[in-house]
Write a structure and sequence with these properties.
7-stranded mixed sheet; Met_g_lyase_put; 37% helix; PyrdxlP-dep_Trfase_major; 2 domains; binds pyridoxal-5'-phosphate; globular; Aspartate Aminotransferase, domain 1; Aluminum resistance protein
């Protein structure tokens, strides 16, 4: 970077100390990229940002230790073809790093998982057998799981219901958190799996902290020690300094184009947890008998999965700061936000209730226009496979649909909330919010 460029960058920082005006001279005008209301919010959030960095450093240190323990080296990025038998230990090393990072006995991290929904479905099918009940303990599960469970969609596509698995839900408490009294007597002898969704999904609800997840697991296991606990970990990874397997979850699953892909992993997902259960999930991804030993991946994908995981704590930290800023700015404008401004974060999602269809679409249009990729594309609401409602997505991202990159989306249904997430640096949201304030 040239000296001139470096000076320009420094002076445009909202934190750079304002240079003293020379005696009798003119004050230097500092360029600032932010809308004044956004700049004020940024100034007021410095203590919260420092707290995010504290968690980030602890998570980065755990990730680095896991890389060293698995002796990750360039040959792991070599890639493989066909069955994947010529893999030079990359898959094994990646699985081992991931398991170490989330405190699990084992993990399977693969580009062959299409999405978070696919990884979660493999985990659920690994845990449940005909005659079992699936119990969702945090209200309705994420929209795309409805067809996996069989509470929506056609019969005979191989949903859990088709295989004789029944389903029940513990509704959320009035404050949007877990209903502890209901959960204390909800688990029966036939409950084969309790599903805990860590993040809010498209519901106006609280996301769950790892402390809440621990309490829920203890309650579930007290009622039925054989009931397995599966956590939908999408959007929760690295937001706190511990992960659900560290507090007793049997399995967790998620997507690599969300938090643990660090914004650069091009595809894939993971399942982690108890060794025998991860093996069963691997058999659902591949086939019984093949397990984790198959599945090739090109070298550039292997490298991106390692590097994305290494970067993930940092990117998640930036996304959390972005969420804090959105909450601060939008609530100051009178919009309801979830989580509340400055409340502790348990995922990277920040919801804003916009109240009507037009405002939701306008918000998404501004975000899309401000994105680096496809800024000229007008997002339109439409039907998306897996979703019952029309959904609108603004994702001018380098990876298609990546929500670790700056993006927002929402179903076109009451209360017309937009769900914002991602970003490689909080300043991206600061810039987007400036544009949003001009329109909303
Ligand atoms: C809580 C939660 N679980 C699962 C999913 C499904 O993930 P994917 O879109 O990768 O299938 C989402 C998607 O946003 C989500 O928010």
């Amino acid at each position: 970077m040239s000296t001139a460029a470096a000076t320009a960058t420094l002076t445009s920082s909202p934190f750079a100390r304002r240079p003293r005006a020379p005696r009798g001279g003119r004050r230097t005008v500092r360029p600032c990229a932010f809308h004044p209301e956004v700049a004020r919010a940024v100034e007021s959030l410095q203590a919260e940002f420092r707290e995010v960095d504290r968690a980030l450093a602890l998570n980065s240190s755990r990730v680095s230790a896991a890389f060293r323990a698995a002796r990750v080296a360039p040959h792991h990025f070599g890639g493989s073809t066909g069955y994947g038998h010529d893999d030079a230990g990359g898959r094994e090393a990646l699985d081992s790093v991931f398991a170490h990072v989330v405190g699990a006995e084992a993990a399977i991290v693969r580009p062959q998982f299409f999405s978070g929904t696919h990884a979660i479905a493999c985990a659920l099918f690994a845990l449940l057998r005909p005659g079992h009940e699936l119990l969702a303990v945090a209200g309705p599960p994420y929209d795309t799981l409805e067809e996996v469970i069989g509470i929506r969609g056609s019969a005979n596509v191989g949903s859990l219901k088709d295989f004789g698995v029944t389903y029940r839900e513990v509704p959320l408490a009035a404050d949007g958190g877990l209903d502890w009294d209901a959960l204390a007597c909800a688990v029966g002898p036939e409950t084969g799996c309790a599903l805990i969704q860590r993040s809010c999904g498209y519901s106006w609800r609280k996301s769950l902290g790892v402390a809440d997840i621990r309490r829920a697991i203890d309650l579930i296991k007290m009622q039925n020690p054989n009931c397995k606990v599966m956590v939908d970990n999408c959007y929760g990874e690295f937001v706190e300094i511990s992960e659900p397997p560290m507090v007793g979850a049997d399995l967790i699953a998620g997507s690599l184009i969300k938090n643990p892909g660090g914004t650069i992993t091009p595809c894939g997902g993971y399942v982690a947890g108890k060794k025998d259960l991860v093996a069963a999930a691997a058999a659902r991804l591949s086939a019984p008998g093949l397990g984790v030993e198959f599945g090739s991946a090109p070298g550039h994908v292997m490298r991106a999965m390692f590097q994305g995981l290494f970067l993930a704590p940092q990117m998640v930290g930036e996304a959390v700061k972005g969420g804090l800023l959105i909450a601060e700015v939008m609530s100051a404008k009178g919009y309801r936000v979830q989580p509340l401004p400055r409340a502790p974060r348990h995922d990277i999602v920040q919801a804003v209730e916009l109240g009507n269809r037009e405002r939701l679409i306008a918000f998404c249009e501004v975000v899309q226009q401000t994105c680096p990729v496809g800024s000229f594309i007008k997002p339109t609401a439409g039907e998306t496979p897996g979703y019952a409602s029309e959904v609108i997505f603004a994702d001018g991202t380098f990876m298609d649909g990546s929500t670790s990159e700056l993006s927002c989306d929402g179903p076109l249904r009451d209360p017309y909330a937009v769900f914002c997430q991602g970003g490689t640096h909080w300043t991206q949201w600061a810039l987007v919010l400036g544009e949003v304030l001009k329109v909303i």
